[in-house]
Amino acid sequence: MNVEQAREVVHAACLEMVADGLVIGSAGNISARVDEHRFVVTAAGVPYARLTAAEHPLVDVRTGEWEGPRPPTSELALHLGVLRSMADVGAVVHTHSRHAAAFAVARLDLPFVCNESMVTRAERVLVTEYAPPGSTDLGDQALATFARQPGSRAVLLANHGVVAVGPTVEDAALVARAVEWTAEICHLARTLVAAGAGETVLDRAVQDAIGRNYGVTIAREDERQADG
Fold first, then answer.
1. What is the pLDDT of residue 226?
2. How far apart are CA 119 and CA 177, in angstroms?
3. What's the pTM?
4. 154: closest CA among 85, 82, 76?
5. Which segments of 7-126 are extended strands (E)?
């Protein structure tokens, strides 16, 4: 993509993110790589319906310097951290969707409970340690949590929301939707069965079988790190 195409893609995804109820107002943010050294990220502080695609800034991934008519999102450090460290990631979608955010507030990992869980390519969507919004530490916590399950495409930011990644904005946005779908199903299952956990977690063999059907590998936390 060239810069103009990346801005159009980011802007369209922002509008879809609002329409899908994954954010309200100007919450959440999206980034898309243009090339090895640059990416487009959402502009700060203005509801997306009031923005045009041309207003989303272009950022240098090496320095964090940006150009454009509006400043970048307050979560720029999060996008810089992921795009600097995860070379296979072409896009980042950060949402505040309700059910997923509830799991993040409760500090509960999201288990693999249905076919949609496969989209995250992870046995569980893990929750980070808490870090303040807009901080460099937030990006560090996201990276550390992704590293616990290499290949995972999503983490929950404690008391905050979802970070979904993928090779393209379309892919990352699908991951964010799948996380919210899974969180809602899991929440409903736990509500319906008040005694115990509620949901029936698919075992690893079934998870792997679903993954094979779609040609993906399910990431799992390193049990040695988990025990530590």
1. 58
2. 9
3. 0.88
4. 82
5. 29-33, 38-41, 58-60, 66-67, 91-95, 110-111, 124-125
Question: Which residues pair with residue 58 across a beta bridge?
Answer: 40, 67
Map tokens 């916590």 to a residue: 141
Handedness of CA 156, 175, 24, 47 (dihedral sign): positive
219: Cβ contacts below 8 Å, ≥ 6 apart: 121, 122, 123, 149, 150, 151, 152
Q: Measured in whole angstroms, how far is the alpha carbon of residue 197 from the centre of its chain?
A: 25
User: Residue 124's pLDDT band (boundaries 50, 70, 90)?
Assistant: very high
Task: Quote the CA–CA distance of 61 and 7 in Å, as a whole number.
Answer: 16
Query: C-alpha dihedral over 145, 175, 68, 70, to 10 degrees?
Result: -80
Distance CA 148, CA 119 (A): 18
**Residue the block writes with tokens 């980034």:** 31
Count of beta carbons in the 10 Å neighbourhood of residue 29: 26
Separation CA 92–CA 171 (nearest Å): 9
In the block, residue with structure tokens 């905050």: 160
Topology classification of domain 3-227: L-fuculose-1-phosphate Aldolase (3.40.225)
**Residue 194: band (very low, low, confident or very high) from pLDDT cuts 50, 70, 90:** low
